[in-house]
Amino acid sequence: MKDFEKNIRKVTPYVPGEQPQSRVVKLNTNENPYPPAPGVCRAMEDLGAHGDMLRLYPDPTSDKLVTALAQYYHVGKDQVFVGVGSDDVLSMCFLTFFNSPKPIFFPDITYSFYKVWADLYRIPYECKPLDENFRIVKEDYYGENGGVIFPNPNAPTSVYEELDFVEDIISHNQDVVVIVDEAYIDFAGKSALSLLEKYDNLIITQTFSKARSMAGMRIGYAIGSPLLIRYLNDAKYSFNSYTMTQASLKCGVEAVKDKEYFEETVNKIVETRKWAVREFSRLGFCFPKPSGNFIFVSHPDYDAKDIFQALRENGIYVRFWDSGRIRQYLRVTIGTREEMETLFAFLERFMRR
Ligand SMILES: *Cc1c(COP(=O)(O)O)cnc(C)c1O
Fold this sequence. Notes:
- The chain is α/β, with parallel strands linked by helices.
- The model has no long low-confidence stretch (mean pLDDT 96).
- The protein contains ten helices and twelve strands.
- A seven-stranded mixed β-sheet has the order 2-8-7-6-5-3-4, sandwiched between helices. A three-stranded antiparallel β-sheet has the order 9-12-11, covered by helices on one side. The chain has a two-stranded parallel sheet with strand order 1-10.
- Bound molecules: pyridoxal-5'-phosphate (PLP).
- Residues 30, 85-87, 111, 151, 155, 181, 183, 207, 209, 215, 220 line the site of pyridoxal-5'-phosphate.
- Pyridoxal-5'-phosphate is lined by residues 30, 85-87, 111, 151, 155, 181, 183, 207, 209, 215, 220.
């Protein structure tokens, strides 16, 4: 190692799913198969027509987007923080809220970015194993810690926990910040937003990437008590004042406005998921009950890696992790009905051989 390398911050980065540039059936990164709301596409055209907007810095407070979200969720403007995807928001939360010498707690099988941020920011952490049904064991989170984070529904398992379960974990951790990552909540059930009145140590993060079909625009947000949001903004302004582009601000507002379109696409995906659950069962796959726009499947007679590779060679991309307890599982994003039909037709051929 060269001398100058000794003081370099070294990290093992998060590995995102593949983004093939050719046309494939893409069920590997939980994107929404439907386009964003029509207003979003019009806002993009408008931006092109008024290129002058790009000459100026965007509003550093992101006021219009913050206001739209505050109105939509019936919270104060001082309770909303926006960022460049929830990855940016979550990274800011780790930096701002997790500064205890005690370890933060999160599940062993979960969003793999948590570990990466903890390492990057030198935050000690402890992973709490999910039980054999991929459920969070809430008692594991009662011990002393420097903070708690878990997604609900969890990823990549797609398992949702009811609100009283979530509240139980929060109520046992009122001396630290608890983050509930609700990237997939719109496909699932009740959000923890209603718990904000009771717990001012709670932060909820959500994203425009999944249910709102805008992964390419990079918009995420956190909702919490005014005190926590103020600390987050202080950290943000100490890092980069202009995180949100003019385009994200404009398109984000348009997406939030169109509640009807949003509910319609979410319903379509939930319907396709119901049907996909029956198809996977018919083909002999096992999986925990899915609540996100994805399903975590395993087959008793076929190696997950073999299925993954065969699918990939045939232009169908799903996600596979060659590690530990999830080695025999595939995470399959719910695409359109047609995309899923292509998947099941291939699986039937593959399994009949
Ligand atoms: C997709 C995802 C995110 C981040 O999404 P962004 O595109 O950065 O908003 C965060 N948490 C979980 C669990 C996710 O699956």
